[in-house]
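Dataset card, provenance and construction

Sequences and ligand SMILES were collected as paired inputs. For each pair, a complete structure of the chain with the small molecule in place was predicted and serialized as structure tokens. The example below shows a pair involving NAP. Curators did not alter the output after generation; any descriptive sentences attached to a record were derived from the structure itself.
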Amino acid sequence: MPPDTEDSPKNIPAGALRVLVLGGTGFIGRHAVAALHASGAQVAIGSRHPERHKSAYPFASLHLVRFEHLLQPDAWASLLKDVDVVVNCVGILRQRPNESYDHVHHRAPAALALACAGANIRFVHTSALGLHEGAKSRFLSSKLLGERAIAASGSDYAIVRPSLLDGEGGFGARWLRGLSRSPVHFIPRGARGGIAAMAATDLGKAFAVLAALPSLAGHREVELGGIRRYGYAEYLRELRADYTGTRALQIPTPNWAARLGAHVCDVLHFSPFSYGHWILLQRDNVPSPNRLPELLGREPLAIRPAIQPKTQPEPHQVHAGKIGPHDLPDTPAG
Ligand SMILES: NC(=O)c1ccc[n+]([C@@H]2O[C@H](COP(=O)([O-])OP(=O)(O)OC[C@H]3O[C@@H](n4cnc5c(N)ncnc54)[C@H](OP(=O)(O)O)[C@@H]3O)[C@@H](O)[C@H]2O)c1
């Protein structure tokens, strides 16, 4: 059980699965937390700002977690007390003082995986599709190093690689929806990779299913995506058609402009477009095989903004029993 503090979860049945969700206040993490809570799990959340998020998660205990301070297995010991499964949804788009890609994507998850191995705790880690050797992006290479360290840790782990996510509250999702509404789309010529965009609600449910498995041995690398493969230009076109019912003018742009734009965005910390994402856009980001239908027991939701509900329920609504992820209509949140 998590520490018996004022914010300890109430009314959780004895014997419930105890899950620590790191980054549980983020875009992916929120969906994981909601699905786990709806499944009856006892949820603890790791956040850099537990006080800030306390009122939104009355059903969970919140713990201070800063990956840059958790670079050795021993440092994780107190957080892992009375935990059956850890779900790691922490990631950074850009480095900040003391929060390097190496710390957040590689060394802290590596130490965590070793700590999980020592404590016999299952470990579900969020990574990404399209990571590859030799990518000249520290964002991507740190994630690949993190995956490799976890695989070598001896823990009972699952590395989850979702495709691009759509849903309310996602930084990238919000930008793509906004870009799609523009009447002119600039499409870099090299953006030829496929995307199997999926709903963030589906990812949350997949995490809840994985967390409940007694062993992750059959799920070491779990690639997930939606039902369709889109090209980047096609994805923007379809989003726009759903939002506005009209077509945009799509103008091809040279690759050097996309690359320069990505570097400028990185320097200015502007938008989700980074050099790492420019590399990803040039390659397929499609799961192979796609294990989402198997985990959900149904087809993934379609990305259809026009028929989505306008708002994603707040975590406190889930707690109050007003709505749970399983009650959501079969459309992406948002
Ligand atoms: N969004 C997508 O489409 C997508 C697709 C595939 C893979 N991914 C990967 O999934 C991961 C999560 O993505 P997301 O979209 O959910 O990002 P997000 O909304 O930014 O959430 C990440 C969370 O990580 C926590 N965090 C950040 N720095 C931390 C640190 N130094 N120590 C501890 N916690 C820290 C933050 O929680 P607090 O503020 O509460 O500390 C934040 O809410 C990333 O690695 C991303 O690359 C995302």
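Derived descriptions for this record:
The chain is about 35% helix and 15% strand.
The first helix runs from residue 27 to 38.
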